[in-house]
Amino acid sequence: MTNTLYASSIPLFKQMLGGLKGVLAKAEAHATAKNIDPNALLQARLFPDMFPLLKQVQVATDFAKGVAHRLAGVEVPSMDEGELTFADLQARIDKVLALMDRLDASQFEGAATREIVTQAGTPKEKRFTGQSYLVNYGLPHFFFHTTTAYDILRHNGVEVGKRDYIGTY
Fold first, then answer.
1. What are phi and psi of 35, to 5 degrees?
2. 59-91 pLDDT, tens per residue?
3. Pick from 80, 118, 77, 116: nearest CA to 100
4. φ/ψ (deg, to 5) at 47
5. pLDDT, tens digit, 9 for 90 and up, residues 103-148
6. What does the alpha-carbon distance between residue 113 and residue 84 come to, in Å, rounded to a whole number?
7. Which of these, 131, 160, 149, 169, lies nearest to 89 by C-alpha position?
8. Which domains are seen in the chain, by residue range?
């Protein structure tokens, strides 16, 4: 029997992060071709109170990594947020993909009913079952940040489309 939380998370995170890698590669090529300072794109936002592209990618990768590891019942690996370039963001995505490759479907046994606590002991503490954590919290946040990263680049003239966003499946 297939572990549904594994099947509903890991392949999806990998597909979408692969799409994000492709979108970032096109953005870097666009900046080079148009003689645009790459930092102009990396710091671009859709609105002043939103995170810039760089932070959108960091948060998207944090959600993929965090959700996957919590559902697997293992400690979430920490990562620095020192990225400054497109190459740094590509390396961050590669690191998260490698971390997910180390997770096995068997680690997700019982994950649907496993209790997931976010920000334990804080006033913002939230408690979920694994199923609710993935479907109602983790995936919506992950998709928000991957979509916003795509939208920032599309808004700034990078020629990307739905196929780029979705990635390879």
1. 55, 45
2. 999 999 999 999 999 999 999 999 999 999 999
3. 77
4. -155, 150
5. 999 999 999 999 999 887 888 899 999 999 999 999 999 999 999 9
6. 39
7. 149
8. 4-166 (1.20.120.450)
DSSP letters, 73-110, are: TSPPPP------SHHHHHHHHHHHHHHHHT--GGGGTT
Both tokens of 167, joined, read: 């990635």
pTM above 0.90, yes or no: yes
Q: Which residues pair with 128 in a beta bridge?
A: 116
- In the beta sheet, which residues pair with residue 9? none
- Side chain identity, residue 123: P
Q: Would you tell me how many other CB atoms lie within 10 Å of the CB of residue 139?
A: 19
